Automatic annotation (TrEMBL), chain A:
Recorded GO MF terms: nitrogenase activity
Keywords, in A-Z order: Nitrogen fixation
Superkingdom of the organism of origin: Bacteria
Key word Nuclease present: no
Family recorded in the similarity comment: Belongs to the NifD/NifK/NifE/NifN family.
Protein name: Nitrogenase molybdenum-cofactor synthesis protein NifE
Xref: Pfam families: Oxidored_nitro (PF00148)
Native organism: Halanaerobium saccharolyticum
Keyword RNA-binding assigned: no
Domain Nitrogenase/oxidoreductase component residue range list: 43-508
Automatic annotation (TrEMBL), chain B:
Domain of life assignment: Bacteria
The protein's name in its UniProt record: Nitrogenase iron-molybdenum cofactor biosynthesis protein NifN
GO process terms (BP): protein-containing complex assembly
InterPro entries, per database record: ChlB/BchB/BchZ, Nase/OxRdtase_comp1, Nase_comp1_CS, Nase_Mo-Fe_CF
Keyword entries, A-Z: Nitrogen fixation
Pathway participation: Cofactor biosynthesis; Fe-Mo cofactor biosynthesis
PANTHER family in the cross-refs: LIGHT-INDEPENDENT PROTOCHLOROPHYLLIDE REDUCTASE SUBUNIT B
Length: 523, 470
């Protein structure tokens, strides 16, 4: 029985939904979910977990009752080229008495077990905080510090109590944990610097300060310039400049040794179905080496030396732009927002990276790569376009960058986007979506199944693009479904990705079952 | 066997609220509201949706930081209002989570207050306290059924001839099978919960967001008048048992049975139906039984080579171990993540006559299970799809039963109970053992008797010996 009321959105939700072309202001977004509205969102912990968990050789310990560890055990498709500790779910499995008396004691025992049992050899332990831990007030920092002192490994707390914000806050918590790990680099370079060069530097500073300059034949202005230069040099020896020198020297050494001309980091890729490897292959082909991947197929070692890169490229901005900004502050690494989802975006991104690195050989190699891959990809897409043009798509995904790239790709394939929404989009994302879509398209933030149902029906969508939870809804409505979730088993990035996308769309939209299920017995 | 480790690696259990969610899905026109952080409901929806392949709508009161500090009452009230507006349910289950329990939310009081201030007399709101740290999905499921009965069942003073059937957490197809068997005895019954339609919704062009089917409130109310109660929950503590409650409160005789998987367990169920209905066992069932026995004989030598690890929900482990035991498949490892005292005792009794040294664990995890699977030469695993990790890593085949099953389709169509279901289930196990045999015996015998001798004769390995090797 459908209630007539159920077809109306809740009054409190009205500002979160807009129709392109209607002259109202901006969409409301980035707010806490409405109680009872069946939001598709998860929690802070979930955000932290998805971003941080792919670090393959770290131990990811969930401090809390079992559910949080149970529902997130190995559910994402991040692939690894080496260790796979991250595919196991470690938990303190808190019980009633731990809640009453505090969970710190159990956390200490569990860390001890991790450190002392033969089968584990943790170098880094991330401790995720959960709802309960945030309430009973376990001091994770204190426990972590104690454990670090006792065992000489890094133990890094992740501030991810579920209730304390939205998923985006969890992304930040994960980024903070990564920065914490990268601070090892700073400490290390400082240590190397101080051990080896402290004496040298001291002497050098003394020598320069003591040296009397020869000002003969100089006017006052010139004298000041010489003095300023001298001061700057002394300054640079005394402060962080030494770190940069160390870093630059390292890069130079490595680049000279290898075939790569530049070293960069990839942020916001989780190597789902080898997507990170595909991007890395492109970059390698044009002469760029990846220092660290954040965080698909990343290792502790890679992350620790990430500060040596000269550029960060950010794929999923929603989860990792924060890290890029912070790395810019901390290590002076500039960043570029790029996207390898979609053909045009992939080409643009490759060119953008090459241009930024300002290296003619890389620029040429990028054009070569594009020339080699593009014709075949376009030919394949043309075939699928025949089958897909004119279809109507509804999109509801977690991150806005996915939604934006999907709309672009659908436009290229001649598919009309009739509804598009995200769980965690920001105002600027929705502005971009508004630009990209036709008049009449429904745009919505933090939607619930009732809204998805109503708008898909109203707009006559042929396919829904979404996560695991939305699949059953589409199927129950007799609508095709495209899996754009973290469990996917085929890559959607780059040249191969756009073809995979078209192929899967065709497979589901044009399946013979849609015709078959609507024929047959007369009622 | 006691478990001394504190660190849990790869959980063999879920939390209480998901048990509550499954139970409420079998109540007609019901919706569930989880009082807690937004993430809980989302995780559980995903978990259930991939298993049942159905849309699973569960609301959350979305307690935020403010709610955590000052109390989540307003979130719960608003959540109830919005849920009613969106879904117009007849029944609302309000269950707690870790967060709500830890900040000390009194859901009973809040709901009483809500009922007073709002016109919701047509809606039954049932409260269940299910802290995630208070137990596993197993306790959550049975506690919820009991709370539904405690808060709804009445006695009219007149006895009915109906039978209360308290279902274990089975598949929708299995619930349909139980109903079919009850019908064969012409029994009138109330199935609680009844997920046979709600979690296996036939496709129609007219989708409704609360699925059709489920136990109705009026039926539940009359459960206090019933003639008998049959509860599939032999390992369930009496404090969580709905049958025990109905017996104590309304003097309804209770039969507490294991899940009818295997000959012995199905016989128990069928004999009780014959007894309470006063009817002879129908010929069709007798024939099904005869066919199961025929299969048991035909397959016994293949089954005799089975060394099984069985894991998941305690009640399911008991039933699966039982069919293994009576068919000569050694249930070498029986392991649950649920912390349950009676588990070891019951399974020891069940396997008293087997020659192997059975390993029985409660409150364990998959790391421990995996260690023993390898140490004890297990050749078949039977349990939920969380065992897939071991299957992938160590190559031990997994027969998927129970909840959850994430990596195969058809969980809601699995039918492993009664004589017919047991027959199919046994075939699955036997065929897996046969596949192992046929895929390996040539290689194994070659290795053991030809290759080893040849290795002795010559230190140089002939090239062709590599053929067929891994």
């Amino acid at each position: 029985m459908k209630s007539p009321k159920s077809n109306e959105a809740l009054a409190e939700r009205k500002d979160f939904i807009m129709t392109k072309g209607d002259n109202k202001g901006n969409i409301k977004c980035d707010q806490h979910s409405l109680a009872g509205a069946v939001s598709q969102r998860a929690c802070v912990y979930s955000g932290a977990r998805v971003v941080l968990n792919p670090v393959k050789d770290a131990y990811h310990l969930v401090h809390g009752p079992i559910g949080c560890a149970s529902y997130t055990w190995d559910i994402r498709g991040s692939l690894t080229s080496g260790a796979d500790f991250f595919r196991s779910s470690f938990s303190t499995d808190l019980r009633e008495k731990d809640i009453v008396f505090g969970g710190e004691a159990k956390l200490e025992i569990v860390i001890e077990e991790l450190m002392e049992k033969e089968q584990y050899k943790p170098e880094v332990i991330f401790i995720y905080s959960t709802c309960v831990v945030g309430v009973i007030g376990d001091d994770l920092k204190a426990v972590a510090r104690k454990a670090e002192e006792k065992y000489g490994v890094r133990v890094i707390p992740v501030e991810s109590s579920g209730f304390a914000g939205t998923k985006s806050k969890g992304y930040k918590a994960a980024c903070e944990a990564l920065l914490n790990l990268m601070s090892d680099f700073k400490a290390e370079s400082n240590r190397v610097d101080s051990n080896k060069k402290a004496a040298d530097r001291k002497n050098k500073i003394k020598e320069i300060s003591d040296r009397s300059e020869d000002y003969t034949g100089m006017n006052t202005k010139e004298k000041i310039r010489v003095l300023q230069k001298k001061l700057r040099y002394i300054n640079s020896l005394q402060t962080g400049k030494a770190i940069d020198d160390f870093k630059n020297k390292k890069i130079k050494e490595q680049v000279e040794k290898g075939k790569y001309r530049k070293k960069i980091n990839l942020l916001g890729d989780y190597n789902l179905a080898a997507e990170g490897w595909i991007i890395e292959n492109y970059l390698n082909e044009v002469g760029i080496e990846l220092v660290a991947r954040f965080t698909g197929d990343s290792s502790i070692k890679d992350i620790r030396r990430a500060p040596t890169a000269e550029l960060n490229i950010v794929q999923c901005a929603g989860s990792m732009k924060y890290l890029a900004k912070r790395m810019q502050q901390e290590f002076g690494i500039p960043f570029l927002e790029i996207s390898f989802l979609g053909l045009q975006d992939s080409l643009d991104s490759l060119r953008k990276i090459a241009r930024f690195l300002d290296d003619q050989i890389i620029i040429n190699k990028v054009e070569k790569l594009i020339a080699r891959r593009l014709p075949d990809t376009e030919a394949k897409l043309k075939i699928y376009k025949n089958y897909l043009a004119g279809k109507k798509a509804a999109i509801y995904v977690g991150g806005a960058f996915k939604a934006i790239s999907l709309v672009k790709q659908f436009n290229d394939l001649g598919i009309k986007t009739v509804m598009v929404g995200t769980q965690n989009g920001k105002e600027s994302d929705y502005e971009e979506l508004k630009e990209l879509t036709d008049s009449g398209t429904i745009i919505l933030d933090d939607a619930n199944p009732s809204e998805l149902e109503v708008f898909m029906r109203e707009k006559g969508a042929d396919v829904l693009v979404g996560g695991v939870k939305d699949r059953a809804l589409a199927y129950k409505m007799g609508i095709a479904f495209f899996d754009h979730n973290h469990e996917r088993k085929h890559p959607l990035v780059g040249f191969e990705g756009v073809v995979n996308l078209a192929q899967e769309l065709d497979l589901t939209i044009n399946s013979p079952i849609w015709k078959a299920i609507r024929s047959g017995i007369d009622e | 066997m006691s478990n001394l480790k504190r660190l849990n690696v790869n959980p063999c259990k879920m939390c209480m609220p998901i048990g509550a969610a499954i139970a409420f899905k079998g109540i007609e026109e019901s919706m569930l509201l989880m009082h807690g952080s937004q993430g809980c409901s989302t995780y559980m929806r995903r978990h259930m949706s991939t298993h049942y392949e159905e849309p699973i709508d569960i609301a959350s009161s979305s307690i935020d930081e403010e709610g955590t500090v000052y109390g989540g009452e307003e979130n719960l009230r608003q959540g109830l209002k919005n849920l009613i507006k969106l879904y117009s349910p007849k029944v609302i289950g309000v269950v707690t989570t870790c967060l709500a329990e830890t900040i000390g939310e009194d859901i009973n009081r809040i709901v009483v207050d809500f009922k007073k201030k709002n016109d919701v007399k047509d809606i039954s709101i049932i409260t269940v306290s299910t802290p995630g740290y208070g137990g596993s999905q197993f306790e959550g499921y049975y506690l919820t059924l009991r709370k539904i009965i405690e808060q709804l069942a009445e006695s009219s003073g007149y006895k009915s001839s109906k039978v209360n059937v308290i279902a274990a957490s089975l598949s929708p197809a299995e619930i349909r099978e139980i109903k079919k068997i009850l019908d064969l005895f012409d029994l009138e019954y109330t199935m609680l919960p009844d997920i046979s339609r709600t979690l296996a919704v036939p496709f129609t062009e007219d989708y409704s967001k609360i699925p059709p089917g489920g136990t109705t409130v009026s039926e539940i109310k009359k459960m206090g008048d019933a003639d008998f109660t049959i509860e599939f929950g032999d390992l369930v503590d009496s404090s969580l048992s709905t049958a025990v409650y109905l017996k104590n409160e309304f003097e309804i005789p209770a039969y507490r049975l294991p899940i009818p998987i295997g000959l012995k367990n199905t016989d128990k169920f069928i004999n009780i139906l014959a007894e309470i209905s006063g009817k002879k066992i129908p010929q069709s069932l007798k024939e099904e039984r005869g066919r199961l026995i025929d299969t048991m004989i035909d397959s016994h030598k293949y089954n005799g080579e089975g060394r099984a690890a069985i894991f998941g929900d305690p009640e399911m482990i008991y039933a699966v171990s039982s069919i293994c035991q009576e068919n000569g498949i050694d249930p070498v490892i029986m392991a649950t993540g649920t912390d349950l005292d009676i588990f070891e005792k019951k399974l020891k009794e069940l396997t008293a006559e087997t020659r192997v040294n059975n390993l029985i664990f409660s409150d364990t995890d998959f790391e421990e299970i995996r260690n023993y699977v390898n140490e004890y030469d297990i050749n078949i695993m039977i349990g939920n799809s969380d065992g897939a990790f071991i299957e992938e890593k160590d190559g031990v085949p997994l027969i998927r039963v129970g909840f959850p099953i994430h990596d195969r389709v058809g969980a809601s169509r699995q039918q492993n109970i009664g004589y017919q279901g047991s027959n199919n289930f046994l075939d699955q196990i036997t065929n897996q053992l046969l596949a192992l045999k046929h895929n390996n015996y040539r290689k194994d015998l070659y290795k053991e008797y030809y290759q080893s001798n040849n290795d002795k004769k010559t230190s140089q390995k002939p090239e062709e010996l590599k053929v067929g090797e891994k």
